[in-house]
Amino acid sequence: MTRLWNDPADFADEMIEGFVAANERYVRRVPGGVVRSTVSPDGQVAVVVGGGSGHYPAFGGLVGQGLAHGAAMGNLFASPSAQQILSVAKAADNGGGVFFTYGSYAGDVLNFDAAQDRLRDEGIACETVTVTDDISSASLDEKHKRRGIAGDLTVFRVAGAAAEAGYDLDAVTRVAALANERTRSFGVAFTGCTLPGAPEPLFTVPEGRIAIGLGIHGEPGIDETDIPTADGLAELLVSRLLDEVPDGVSVAGARVVPILNGLGSLKYEEMFVVYRRIARLLADAGIVPVDPHVGEYCTSFDMAGTSLTLFWLDEELERLWDAPVDTPAYRRGSVVAAARSTAVAVEALTAEIPASDEASRTVAAAVRDALQTVVDTIDAHVDELGRMDSIAGDGDHGIGMQRGSHAALAAGVAAQEAGAGAATVLARAGDAWADKAGGTSGALWGVILNGVAGALGDTGTPSAAEVAAGIETGVSGVTSYGKAEVGDKTMVDALVPFTTVLTEAVESGASLPHAWGKAADAATAAAADTAALLPKMGRARAHGQHSVGTADPGAHSFALIVSALAVVLERN
Amino acid sequence: MTRLWNDPADFADEMIEGFVAANERYVRRVPGGVVRSTVSPDGQVAVVVGGGSGHYPAFGGLVGQGLAHGAAMGNLFASPSAQQILSVAKAADNGGGVFFTYGSYAGDVLNFDAAQDRLRDEGIACETVTVTDDISSASLDEKHKRRGIAGDLTVFRVAGAAAEAGYDLDAVTRVAALANERTRSFGVAFTGCTLPGAPEPLFTVPEGRIAIGLGIHGEPGIDETDIPTADGLAELLVSRLLDEVPDGVSVAGARVVPILNGLGSLKYEEMFVVYRRIARLLADAGIVPVDPHVGEYCTSFDMAGTSLTLFWLDEELERLWDAPVDTPAYRRGSVVAAARSTAVAVEALTAEIPASDEASRTVAAAVRDALQTVVDTIDAHVDELGRMDSIAGDGDHGIGMQRGSHAALAAGVAAQEAGAGAATVLARAGDAWADKAGGTSGALWGVILNGVAGALGDTGTPSAAEVAAGIETGVSGVTSYGKAEVGDKTMVDALVPFTTVLTEAVESGASLPHAWGKAADAATAAAADTAALLPKMGRARAHGQHSVGTADPGAHSFALIVSALAVVLERN
After folding, report:
1. Chain A residue at shortest CA distance from B270
2. Is the complex ipTM higher than 0.85?
3. Residue A437 sits in which domain range?
4. Selection from B304, B312, B215 nearest residue B255 by Cα
5. Which among B6, B22, B260 is the nearest to A272, CB-wise?
6. Are residues A381 and A435 in the same domain?
7. What residues does the DhaL domain cover (chains A, B) (predicted)?
8. For A10, which residue in chain B has the nearest alpha carbon?
9. CB contact under 8 A, A264 and B267
């Protein structure tokens, strides 16, 4: 379990501060994460990695010469927001374009893609290769749907070395994609980690058993078995990976980097005992191990688990892998030290408050009250949301929503007190939510609030139809952004009925409070359908079955919020 | 807990094999541990480190250019034997003398000192600096009695860099002693590790509490308190260390390397949160942090604990600390890669069997039976001995005695079947015991058996007086070697009454079986006195009191063995 913190809500931020204090030779802090504290050559492609925090040395520990130029560091197990990623990317940019690479998770894809769009809009070239090395997380036919785990390291390293060697953005993209195609991982676990302040681990496996193919945040595994011997585990890992050799590779004589990664509390000595057998099995298969890695490269706090990665080299990949690198947590070979950067921290800009009229400022006060209602609702249900999410996901939905709603309220209040109209108050709230909550739901709430904000305007009082249209804009933003449809068991399952019922009711002449109440009921009913899946998923997982679909507690939290707002609208 | 192994008895050996397989660029295996696989310049001082296994990256992970030339790797938490250390030292020697440095523990001191004597006897210069950084383990007045914990790294690094820079043996010794004087550590823990195959952790601390000043093998702490916040822990660690600034150092303006070391399952993110506050406290005191280290440098399997080390630099120490280094687990700066060594593994020599006569071969058969009795006795009491040791020490006495006695029997049988006389059979058994058991008790049993062997000879039948004289020789070897006296609550408490009563009885004309029986009774009574202390120590420890003295289950196991032999002697 995690044992040391001050306030769990401050953990990620204080962790980054301590990390930077200990590693000023390598990194400096910028809004959203860290970039190198050394100077990079003009025109060098900037490799930007990132993801949720809690996986050290991923991701900040991998910033330095020969590896990443910057890391967007999200909250614990939550994607950094698009704004954070954008901030890191702009600070890292050397004029040669930005290359994004990160483990493939829905929230990260959503936020990195949004940041990529923004960079391109600003005329900065940007390309992406997501890491999809975990062979247990989807079939080979759907390789693009796989998660990124410890194989992050090979893709990051190859991209970083290529940038350092002067490859242009297209060439970095090409070789990183090849590295991802040549990287396959498979993992097992005994227990999940316990997040700071959480009462229990994200998951447990029955005594004497081991989960197979588990994700690094406690995502469901594909099987469960009795705890094997060290040799037995080596045989399991190697046989699974040799069942899926990359296309065009001949096993006999292949040169392969084996990476035996510890997730946190499975320790070095045990891994060396396992590696002893792995080395023999690789030799038996005619494989030549190159530069074996046994250690902690991508952790999950104190999770007791390990994964084996095989990185199938070709001549170019091996040359890039062998290049010198010097970062806080990963060093190798002789790096010619670069000069220290004299850049000062890039501060987030505070935009001016647009003009507003009295009518809109009255609406803005109501928006402020609504934001307070959202905060109160989430605070009252935070534990319940966390529990729901620990069945389907990584258990952070409650604290993520709490972080986002509190940030939204604070930003909304600040704007309202500065005289902003309704649109500005709500847009600021939405941006703050996305920025502070991170993850998928943070980004989506940012989209929803910004959609509604556009309909409210900073002058006049919006009609019920305008509000309904704003909600529709937000919802269509969510579906196009998140690429989920009704029936996928996500937040969208509640959003779509809500907006459909709301629009119909308003069109048939209902008042906003009345229409909102009907729409909230529809959202609640839809969320209940989704939530009803959760106990079933929990059981399936306990029995070691593969995922039966992903039910997102986001539908439930959306229904809670719109229902609470219905009560407030009714009352006023 | 440790979760992966094949046979726990093979764990350390298989761990070393896996470690070497993963790190052939750095190390090659020799009997007793590892040495660099790269060539060192002729005449360079060879820095040899070592200790029990279970502390990775200490000690094998620290062998490579700029750091150690070799590491003697003992069994889990057990000192390597003198023979293992000697083997590593001779393989590491470059003709410039050998420098030993290791954390100060009784077993390690005993075995490294014996190896040092042997090296000097063979004309190889050898000097030693033991690391004594743990300020909680003895008062400043008795600094030489302190344990070595994570501060090992600073002393090893300075010695390794000095050797690499061409310092001669005296100069390496001087600067390493200075580094040790300038290195102070203080640690805390939440739980101890669980050794491979062990049913429970070495220690636990009550829910919500933290042990202060605990050793890395679970040695008793000096206090216990409620779990502090991360900031509170930082304040505790820094304040204790600033209470004991090395002589001649002015705090304001001092340049200090802070090392925040994780013991295994307290993870990086938590340590960064703690380090954030440490950095501020050091700055408040006017201290300039140089090259902060936050990570795992000396672990104890999955122990949940952390320690802070402050290394107070002077100009020479800082220059040596900054020197390039390249090892499996510790790398920094640009090392000019040395050529790979073409040396082949140094094999242990098998000596010829000396001539014997029929009478001595008859005694040798009785010695073989006696060794079998020892094995049977230890096997029957292995759990009991482990439990006793887990109160006073690190819980490995049972398995250590088992490993040693089995190795002694195997070596004795091999010699006896090859026609050896009594002295050779017993001496081979003693050497095997010391070599395979490691630790303090292994070394001492080697001394006892070799002492008796000298009295038996390989010809004729020894008299009772000769046997008694042999026992006396062995016992005086133990007391001079181990530096313990009667009353120190060690094995010596049983040894001395045993030999005194035996000699007196034989001198007054008793038969060997009769005299042995009386002596065994005296040893049993004395061991019972020592053992009676154990429950008291357990209670004291649970209440967080400082050590009330060290009761060694070695007295108990000695009494068990001589009592079992008394029965056999009586019967024949």
Report:
1. A4
2. no
3. 358-571
4. B312
5. B22
6. yes
7. 365-567
8. B273
9. yes
